[in-house]
Amino acid sequence: MDNSSSGSLGPGGLDLTQIFFKPISNASPPSLTKSHNKISVIGAGNVGMAIAQTILTQDLTDELVIVDNKPDKLRGEMLDLQHAAAFLPRVKINSSVEYSVTAGSDLCIVTAGARQIADESRLNLLQRNLALFQGIIPVLASYSPETILIIVSNPVDVLTYIAWKLSGFPSNRIIGSGTNLDSSRFRFLLADHLQVNAQDVQACIVGEHGDSSVALWSSISVGGVPVLSFLEKQQIAYEKETLENIHKKVIDSAYEVINLKGYTSWAIGYSVASLARSIIRDQRKIHPVSVLATGFYGIGDDVEVFLSLPAQLGRGGVLGVTNVHMNQEEEERFRDSAKTILEVQTQLGI
């Protein structure tokens, strides 16, 4: 029995993988897989530890490494996790202030950075995090030259671009957490509005992880039924203002959580763990994450900017980007989102 599968539709049919996904530029082939998985989390703050804890409980790795510059807190976090060994799958947990402990990582997740304070935009964090990345990314790349980098620190799109430049990696091995969580919040709010289960809602936010993000209203479906086209066919009126208010709630969600509890942690923990699972387990799932958007939706072939698009993730990192439909207004907003990021990048000097 042949257990292999392909993207063809029927004998001699259309190769859907070549049509449905468009490869990103400057990609390299995936490295050979191995039986032992190692994930390193850089930063033992609230976000880093939420990600580490979720990775452990979901049995995603054989070895988990945590790196931070605060030795006492770092050791305390490591011991606290190790003491839960009887309740967890067998995992080697290690920590250090030295980056040499990350050597040979399959996946490096960078959460280190200045914490976003109340009412501070993500873009304002850039200057405080740029110098930090210059001391982190090249070292990670030297110890794990075949690793895949997931950047979580904010502003995530610009810092993912910085990580790409500093690492020298091909673009498919640099991924920003992007709008993966924004899209989850979007699905939750839509499900709440429609009184359905969020898992039955397909909806996507693209562009910047921030105030200029773009809600793809044309992509919303519930149980496989495209919502807006269904309403139009049934001649049911809907208020665009209602849709925009839902998108605004998505944008404001992080600020609301930060105002209430001081930081965000659990949702981003689950979000990044889902990305790790898709990569480590080669699940080839589609996530809206920050990727090199050169040549997509009117972004010039000479423009280097990272923005969120629905991307297929697997052992090789970004395997392709879904050719999702955008109407004219959505494309214009997407390009405006790119301009927002590029304005900041021009000040970096790298």
UniProtKB/TrEMBL annotation:
A GO cellular component entry from the record? cytoplasm
What is the official name of this protein in its record? L-lactate dehydrogenase
Q: Which PANTHER family match?
A: L-2-HYDROXYCARBOXYLATE DEHYDROGENASE (NAD(P)(+)) (PTHR43128), L-LACTATE DEHYDROGENASE (PTHR43128:SF23)
Domain called Lactate/malate dehydrogenase C-terminal: residue spans = 179-343
Pfam families registered for this protein in UniProt? Ldh_1_C, Ldh_1_N
Keywords, sorted A to Z:
NAD, Oxidoreductase
Q: Which NCBIfam families match?
A: L-LDH-NAD
Give GO MF terms, alphabetically. Answer: L-lactate dehydrogenase (NAD+) activity
Q: Where is the active site?
A: H209 (proton acceptor)
Pathway involvement? Fermentation; pyruvate fermentation to lactate; (S)-lactate from pyruvate: step 1/1
| The protein's Enzyme Commission number | 1.1.1.27
Q: Which family does it belong to?
A: Belongs to the LDH/MDH superfamily. LDH family.
Give an example GO biological process. lactate metabolic process
Q: What superkingdom does the record give? A: Eukaryota
Q: Which InterPro entries match?
A: L-lactate/malate_DH, L-lactate_DH, L-lactate_DH_AS, Lactate/malate_DH_C, Lactate/malate_DH_N, Lactate_DH/Glyco_Ohase_4_C, NAD(P)-bd_dom_sf
Class in the EC hierarchy, top level: oxidoreductase
Q: Which residues bind NAD(+)?
A: G43, A44, G45, N46, V47, G48, D68, N129, V152, S153, N154
Task: List, for all copies, the residue spans of the domain called Lactate/malate dehydrogenase N-terminal.
Answer: 38-176
Q: Which HAMAP family match?
A: Lactate_dehydrog (MF_00488)
Reactions it catalyzes = (S)-lactate + NAD(+) = pyruvate + NADH + H(+)
